[in-house]
Amino acid sequence: MPHPHHEADVWSVEGRFQHLIYSPKGAIEGVLIETDGVSTQFVTDPHDLSVTEQFAALRIGQALVIEGSDPGPSPKGEPAHWVYVFKRLASIDGKPPKVSAASEEASGKVIRYNYAKHGAANGVVLDNGDFIHTKPEGLARLGLKIGDPVKAEGIARPLVTGNGRVIEARRVNGKSVESAH
């Protein structure tokens, strides 16, 4: 039985990394750790690149402290082991996890829009092959059109095709992508 420490609906669980949990599309959507002989699963958003980057670097047997929240009862019945919704990787072998990649820049001209699964434009593709991800709200706020010059700043990852990068845009043409709350 894991020995979680409860604080404001977030549990902190210590254990040894066993393995990654994959989505049906091959993305990382969680990890399994072992605590005192009991498996504990933390599920993540497979689209969260910073979490994917942290988890992909783990090695079997590393000591982890992971924070998560209780997802509540599953409509599919009792789980085979403890399951939490991932909130934060607190430590790896007693040290804070490495911060994700530094911000990079991309420049070019808009050649087309990119669309989310639900059909809304969620960014633009530049003439150099880079995909500037802004989310639909960000794209609407920026008002980018085909042919517009773009200078984007954000975390960059290679596209699966090997041609170009996806930039999780923070700023585009000097404007913040996020709305001011």
Structure description:
This protein is mostly beta strands. The protein is built from two helices and twelve strands, in the order ββββαβββββαβββ. The chain has helices at residues 49-56, 135-142, and strands at 5-7, 10-22, 28-35, 38-43, 63-69, 82-92, 103-115, 121-126, 131-133, 149-158, 165-172, 175-176. The strands form two sheets. A five-stranded mixed β-barrel has the order 2-3-4-6-5. The chain has a five-stranded mixed beta barrel with strand order 7-8-9-11-10. The longest helix is centred in the first third of the chain and has 8 residues, at 49-56. It is elongated. The termini are far apart. Residues 1-8 have low confidence and may be disordered.
